[in-house]
Amino acid sequence: MMQTFDWIVVGNGLVGAAASYELARQGLSVLLVDQRLDPDSATRYSYGGIPYWSGTSALTRTLCQEGIAKHRQLSEELGANTQFRELDLLLTVAPEDDPQVLAAHYAQFAVPPQFISRAEAQEREPLLTGPAVAGAFTVRHGHVSPVAVVAAYNQAFHRLGGTRLIAQVTGLVRVQDRVTGLLTTEQAYPAHRVLVASGAFSRQLLATAGLKVPLYYTQAEVIETLPTPEITLRALVMPAVTQRLDLEAQASRPEVDNLWDEPGHEVTPSIIDGGAIQFQDHHFCLGQISRTLTDLDGPADTSASIQNLRHTLAGILPSLSTLPGHWHRCPVSFSRDGLPLVGSLPGLEGLEVMAGFNGPFVYLPPIAQRFAQAATGQPDQLLNALRPDRFLTEPSREEPSLG
């Protein structure tokens, strides 16, 4: 007889890896499912930044404090190196930007970034020599290797007796108002509860059970280089004016929600936020373009994207703009208010969702831990604020984290 798991977790990006580990840590039987051994996901091509300074409310400040505390001991807890470190974040100010306006904006954060001149920015990061840099805001920032974090969670999950399955998920097993398992191309797997943690693919999977959730996604485009030890980037570099946040706000308006259920739309024009990070193995991630295409595998003009990315980087980090590398694209989920969807869906038992993280590396570790503790009967008021049904009352958009 096939085992009925306490939980099936769908998706082995950062969210699924952390959630499956934390659930297994509570003594629950867990099946972690993904269609690839090492998924080519949003986690794989992210910067890995931990913006623990960026809380703007009691909720996000609590999560930021818990998130950085978790990261500082996570390698020891998981028994594997996550490559955690703390470094300078430099938020570049363009010549047309007003530093005073930006300073007023950053004043709302728990640890407000401080403005420094172009010369001071170059002293902290000598590669920051492009003409599009008039200065920068700076703050200390956490950083990990996304691949190393997922691998560490997976290894700890395995040691706890968790089960992994490589299979293509085709749908959910639904009996009236209850989800009782998961469908793959080969067979069904029963479970008491299913957690959909597959990022941008979550909306599509939930739709197979007749569910519509306020979850959206951008197609993020980056250039990843080979290890380049002859060049050293000391800081994580991002723009002080992040266009992606406005793009997400526009693309998730209720009046355009129906477009996300139809193929062939670009909901808002694409944007570029020029930035870069160098990982401890010396490879770079250079990005990024964000597009709101309603097709998860929509068309892409790779050559034009590479050219646009390199042109933007030439104005900020000229020495990095010509590095050879490979173009990659991955869908990145987000919600309407910058906070993730975490919890059950109204009117349906046995199904939970955890997706739509903005700043996942700071928010996710404490949320996954809290979620698993709640799964064993420990009430958590903080998680109630992240429930998917919060959008039934249409709250105002909260300023999301950078990272």
Q: What is the tally of beta strands?
A: 17
Return the average pLDDT rounded to an integer. 93
Radius of gyration: 21 Å
Q: What is the CATH third-level topology name of the largest domain?
A: FAD/NAD(P)-binding domain
Major pleated sheet: 8 strands, mixed
Basic shape: globular
CATH superfamily of the largest domain: FAD/NAD(P)-binding domain
Can you put this structure into words, describing what you see?
The chain is of the alpha/beta class and 403 residues long. It has two domains: 5-81 and 146-214 and 337-393, 3-Layer(bba) Sandwich (FAD/NAD(P)-binding domain); 87-142 and 217-334, D-Amino Acid Oxidase, subunit A, domain 2 (D-Amino Acid Oxidase, Chain A, domain 2), CATH 3.30.9. The protein is 29% helix and 28% strand. The chain has eleven helices and 17 strands. It has helices spanning 14-25, 58-78, 99-106, 118-124, 146-159, 201-207, 243-251, 302-314, 318-321, 360-375, 381-384; strands at 5-10, 30-34, 49-50, 85-93, 114-117, 135-143, 163-166, 169-175, 178-184, 188-196, 216-225, 236-239, 271-278, 284-291, 325-334, 341-344, 351-355. The strands form three sheets. Strands 1, 2, 7, 8, 9, 10, 16 and 17 form an eight-stranded mixed beta sheet that branches. Strands 3, 4, 5, 6 and 12 form a five-stranded mixed beta sheet that branches. Strands 13-14-11-15 form a four-stranded antiparallel beta sheet, sandwiched between helices. Helix 1 (14-25) links the parallel strand 1 and strand 2. Helix 1 (14-25) runs parallel beside helix 10 (360-375) and helix 2 (58-78) crosses helix 10. The longest helix has 21 residues, at 58-78. The N and C termini lie far apart (46 Å). Residues 394-403 have low confidence and may be disordered.
